[in-house]
Amino acid sequence: MDLGKLKLVSPRQMWSNEERDFTPWLANNIEELSKVIGIEMEVENTEVAAGPYSADILAKDTGTDRYVVIENQLEKTDHDHLGKSITYASVLDASTIIWIATKFTEEHKKALDWLNDHTTEDLSFYGVQVELWQIDESKAAVKLNIVSRPNQAVREAARSKATEALSDKRKSQLEFWNKFKDKLSKTKKISSPLQTPRPQYWFDVSLGKSYINISNIYNTETSTVGVRIYISNKIVDEMLPFLEEKKIEIEEAIGTKLEWNPKPENKDKTIGLYHNFDDPRKVDEALDWLVEYTIKFREVFSKIIKQYQ
């Protein structure tokens, strides 16, 4: 059998200039980085001003609508780019920093690991090594390798310690969302990463676009769960009418009537479906209902939203 020879190619052969070549390529292929990182991202802009400097790429985590700063370096890591990454994140109020380079020194890898272990869950640092591989004279293929990411074991321990001080209501919410995430994950119907459960009345699921997502609720006082499309006021003037035009199509696909904009006085708008379980012992039934309609909402609305220009 005649086999080809796999060889490592210098990224500079494909992207001779970091700003003119690599940054535009990455911005146009952000889904490749999203798959590796496990965060569904949408690019906001490139070369974004941050004081006297400019961040290579500013993106949005579509699951949380929080900013992601991406700093590119087609060479070995250095202190200058680490400092810039942190500066850009502070100026642009980003919750995630992704540092991409062709080689990470052990010191810079340790620096990222240390930052992940000593900051809150609201701030995450990723180190990603970019490589180009080629078989004989074939087209080169990109390989992105994570060299540093948040340590889940450390963060789980911190969450466990914090849970001890929660009220019974908050503990109930946290337990509910942990069960919900587990059930939803097991269906394997949601491809995008799911958020970390928190002791709050809502749990968001990404729709793949900024400023609109599924925001499920669990009301412990009324024993009510709900699936809601949550539309930020930043896009509501265009998005809500767009969805209302497709109201019949949406409700037929989901199989039931929905509550459209139940609180018109609010700047942010919702489209929802709610379920009351008056017996607390029926919480598993409520979870199954919530999982079923979360999947339906995501299938239907993500498809419709892709039609929005």
Which features characterize this protein?
309 residues, Trna Endonuclease, Chain: A, domain 1, Yope Regulator, Chain: A, 2 domains, 9 helices, globular
CATH level 3 topology of the largest domain = Trna Endonuclease, Chain: A, domain 1
Radius of gyration, in angstroms, nearest whole number: 22 Å
- Low-confidence parts lasting 5 or more residues at pLDDT below 50? none
The tally of structural domains comes to 2
- Assign the CATH architecture of the largest domain: 3-Layer(aba) Sandwich
> What is the residue-averaged pLDDT?
90
Question: What is the percentage of strand-forming residues?
Answer: 25-35%
Work out the number of β strands.
12
| Estimated structural class | alpha+beta
CATH top level of the largest domain?
Alpha Beta
Care to describe what's here?
The protein has 309 residues and is an alpha+beta fold. The protein folds into 2 domains: 6-155, Trna Endonuclease, Chain: A, domain 1, CATH 3.40.1350.10; 166-305, Yope Regulator, Chain: A, CATH 3.30.1460. It has 9 helices and 12 strands. The strands form 2 sheets. Strands 1, 2, 3, 4, 5, 6 and 7 form a 7-stranded mixed sheet that branches. Strands 8-9-10-12-11 form a 5-stranded antiparallel sheet. Strand 4, helix 3 and strand 5 form a beta-alpha-beta unit. The protein is globular, with a radius of gyration of 22 Å.
